[in-house]
Design a protein that fits this description.
The structure holds 2 protein chains of 2 kinds. By secondary structure, chain A is an all-alpha fold. Helix content of chain A is 79%, strand content 0%. The chains are: A mainly alpha, B mainly alpha.
């Protein structure tokens, strides 16, 4: 009898865990979705022409932030993409896995990925603001971000290169192509969607980042940046600025713009990744 | 001429390989530069202040006439915030992942995962804004006993929502990696679906789940923007959940506006402490992942 009771109790306990897990999933979805809805509902009404494209005067405008964000994307991705892709090519096409230097490089890439962004900000401040003497600048911020997104680009590019079937490379060698030619004419094109996806995700990181920029670009919200060396701001920084200095409506409105920007980047990356999967599936079948 | 073209080709192969290698080595160089810059400026500063008084003094007043640099209160706050947010976020995230893995009809699983992955991209400053406009006033009006909304509780709640997507996707992948034979074997032995999931599959996925925990702790530890918007920012000892305090990350960001030479070194020294914390988490993450792939 007591065995039966213990059995029932155990069954009930695990059945209640199941209910708890359903509640947890519900809570997670509600929490995350409500943040998006909150921003959209609260902010959309505050989107005015003045805020989006106006001149920063008596009432604030995010036009300088818009330009600053674009400039940061161009600098950070422009610098990190070639280095990151070349680095991934080395790791996937040339490197012997167990060589100590390769292990060090991998460990370094992983460690870079785990450094808190504010530490990158400090580093950027020490190097670009102080040591290079640029003061606060979009260029310094962009370069710091480039180092920050490098591990992301390296890792996902390497993954998409590794997923290119060996047979394609061998076919190219059999036709007399050298290694470099094979990489540029055969391997990179077959992995192009994967690489593009990783670059778009990296753009998303740049757009979302703000802690690095506090230390490096200077949060100058009211002046349109004229050169890469001028101090500036970004959409994410503007939200922080507006929220902390008494413009909550403008902060939510800017958040709408940032959120749509980031979510559409992620959606694009996601669709590309699906396309890539499908193509890989076709490779597998043939 | 075939020979010169061959020589050119060999040269091109070697040159490109060298270029690829240099790019790969760039990560190593960048990490080296970060460590060198931080430590060269931070360690001498800690030595100057005195190791003991830097780590165990509770007064942080870099702009006072007799400046004092003690990070103890901020280290403690950082640990509290990280622990509390991981406790809330990771347990909810893990349970949600289990539900998604086993108890959700299979046609909903992929769309829900997409949704969660998409929401993983919400910028941290937006979490901060949400915290500032919704969570802080809520805590101030309904939870707090001292009329204060800012503090550890607000920061932990914001961070626990923020780490949910990470925890859900890493745990889901870990559960998915467990061989379905375990589950089927347990069912064959008479376990219910819930028992098989929680008693057999869950323990089998534990190293992957631990990796998710470590990853989430890293995000909570290193988050700056979402935290500084809701934590208040006074560098004092945390004695209550609703009281203005300051984490290590917040200390760096808030100090950024008051940079003079000694204060800068103090911030860099804070950065060194934070970096070491992150490094420990990072290494344990690589270790756990290595262990996990060793199992399979």
């Amino acid at each position: 009898m007591s065995d039966l009771r213990a059995f029932r109790r155990s069954r009930n306990f695990f059945a209640s865990l199941k209910i708890a897990s359903m509640v947890a999933l519900g809570v997670s979805l509600v929490a995350l979705v409500s943040i998006v809805l909150f921003v959209l509902i609260r902010g959309t009404g505050n989107l005015t022409f003045q805020l989006l494209f106006g001149k920063y005067g008596a009432s604030p405008s995010i036009w300088p932030a818009f330009l600053g964000t674009l400039e940061l994307i161009v600098i950070a991705v422009g610098v990190a993409a070639p280095i990151g892709i070349a680095s991934a090519i080395f790791l996937s096409e040339y490197a012997e896995r167990d060589f100590w230097l390769i292990r060090c490089i991998r460990l370094a890439t992983e460690t870079l990925a785990g450094i808190p962004s504010i530490v990158y900000g400090l580093f950027g401040y020490l190097v670009f603001v102080v040591a290079c003497g640029w003061g606060y600048s979009l260029l310094g911020g962009g370069l710091t971000l480039a180092i920050m997104i490098l591990p992301l680009i390296v890792r996902s590019t390497e993954e998409s290169l590794l997923s290119v079937p060996m047979a394609i490379r061998e076919g190219s060698y059999a036709l007399g192509a050298g290694k470099v030619r094979t990489i540029f004419a055969v391997v990179l094109p077959s992995a192009s969607e994967g690489i593009l996806t990783s670059l778009i995700l990296a753009m998303g990181r740049v757009v979302s980042e703000s802690a690095v920029l506090i230390m490096t670009v200077g949060m100058v919200v009211n002046i349109v940046p004229v050169s890469p060396l001028s101090a500036g701001t970004s959409l994410a920084l503007d939200i922080y600025y507006f929220a902390s200095f008494g413009y909550p409506e403008e902060a939510s409105a800017t958040a709408v713009v940032l959120l749509l920007f980031v979510l559409s980047l992620n959606l694009l990356a996601f669709l590309l990744a699906r396309l890539f999967e499908r193509k890989k599936g076709l490779h597998g079948q043939s | 001429m075939p020979t010169s073209s061959l020589r050119y080709r060999t040269f091109r192969e070697k040159a490109m390989k060298g270029l690829f290698f240099l790019s790969a080595a760039f990560s190593l160089l960048a990490l080296g530069a970060i460590i060198a810059y931080l430590f060269a400026s931070g360690i001498p500063f800690i030595a100057k202040v005195g190791f003991f008084s830097f780590f165990f003094s509770t007064t942080w007043a870099p702009l006072a006439t007799i400046p004092q640099y003690g990070v103890f209160a901020m280290v403690l706050t950082t640990l509290y915030v990280t622990a509390l947010s991981v406790a809330i976020g990771a347990s909810i995230g893990l349970l949600a992942a289990i539900c998604l893995f086993r108890f959700v009809p299979s046609r909903f699983v992929t769309p829900l995962r997409w949704l969660i992955d998409l929401l993983a991209g919400i910028p941290s400053v937006i979490y901060g804004l949400f915290g500032l406009i919704v969570i802080v006033p809520f805590i101030r009006d309904y939870v707090s006993t001292n009329g204060m909304g800012y503090g550890i509780l607000a920061a932990s709640l914001v961070l626990s929502i923020m780490i949910l997507p990470t925890m859900v996707s890493v745990s889901y992948d870990a559960l998915k990696a467990v061989s379905p034979l375990y589950y089927e074997g347990a069912l064959a032995l008479g376990a219910s679906r819930e028992e098989a999931t929680f008693k057999i599959v869950l323990p089998a996925a534990k190293s992957g789940i631990f990796a998710g925990l470590v990853l989430s702790s890293g995000r909570a530890l290193g988050e700056t923007m979402a935290v500084i918007m809701v934590i208040g920012g006074s560098p004092q000892l945390p004695v209550s959940l609703t009281e203005s305090v300051r984490t290590l990350t917040a200390n760096i960001a808030m100090g950024a506006s008051e940079l003079t030479s000694d204060a800068l070194s103090a911030l860099v020294a804070t950065g060194v402490v934070l970096f070491v914390f992150a490094l420990i988490l990072n290494l344990s993450f690589s270790f756990l992942r290595g262990k996990e792939s060793g199992h399979v």
